[in-house]
Write a structure and sequence with these properties.
Metallo-beta-lactamase, Chain A; 6-stranded mixed beta sheet; 6 helices
Length: 225
């Protein structure tokens, strides 16, 4: 297996490349970084077959459309995504094949109503649902703190403790965690009831992402506007 974690500084976004048997997938690509991804794919001798967004992003413009235009790859989002431009919308439990690798879609709404995570063997790509020592905000794009509580406590935290957690963003320099580590040390996960978690999330007073008014409509068009 080939695995790379890439970082886009402006939005603190992680993009992941996974590859096997000459095929590759990119998870949460950023439009401005597309030339960098294509260079890396060429250097590693990989053909991009799938590009995935974990949800409709509000802080950067996706690279899905540009990657499909340049490589012919399949573009993927969750079934509730409003992006009709994607090639394939996946449901909870659907499997995406990349060479010998298998990525299983997990519906994890809450940050947005279309949020999906992707489980691949010993690791899970959590988008903005579970962050390292934090969780994604729930105050726009049909966010729902109660739904996020269920996604966290009934889905992600039920994975084996050794499962590596690779989030969609990090703002403090963390690169990877684990389900057990987040269960033990994530302050947002100390809430013992759905009511406590909802109250915690509703008490947050966060500014909107600075690119939100540009990114959301652009991402509904797969970044090609």
């Amino acid at each position: 297996m080939i695995f790379r974690q890439m970082f886009e500084r402006e939005s603190s976004t992680y993009t992941y490349l996974v590859g096997s048997e000459g095929e590759a997938a990119l998870i949460d690509p950023v439009r401005e970084e597309v030339p960098r991804y294509l260079q890396l794919l060429s250097e590693l001798g990989l053909r991009l077959v799938v590009a995935i967004d974990t949800h409709v992003h509000a802080d950067h413009v996706t690279g899905l459309g540009e990657l499909r235009a340049q490589t012919g790859c399949v573009t993927v989002m969750g079934e509730r995504a409003g992006s009709d431009c994607v090639t394939r919308k996946v449901r909870d439990g659907e499997v995406i094949a990349v060479g010998a690798l298998r990525l299983t879609a997990l519906a994890t709404p809450g940050h947005t109503d279309d949020s999906m995570s992707y489980l691949m063997g010993d690791r899970v790509f959590t988008g903005d649902t579970l962050l390292i020592r934090s969780t994604g905000r729930t105050d726009f794009q049909n966010g729902d703190p109660e739904a996020q509580y269920e996604s966290l406590f009934e889905r992600l935290l039920r994975l084996p403790e050794a499962t590596a957690v690779y989030p969609g963003h990090d703002y403090k320099g963390w690169t990877v965690s684990s389900i057990g580590e987040e269960r033990a040390h994530n302050p947002r996960l100390k809430a013992t009831t759905p009511e406590a978690y909802v109250a915690q999330m509703r008490a947050l007073k966060l500014p909107n992402p600075k690119l939100m008014d540009i990114a959301v409509p652009a991402n509904l068009a797969c970044g090609r506007v």
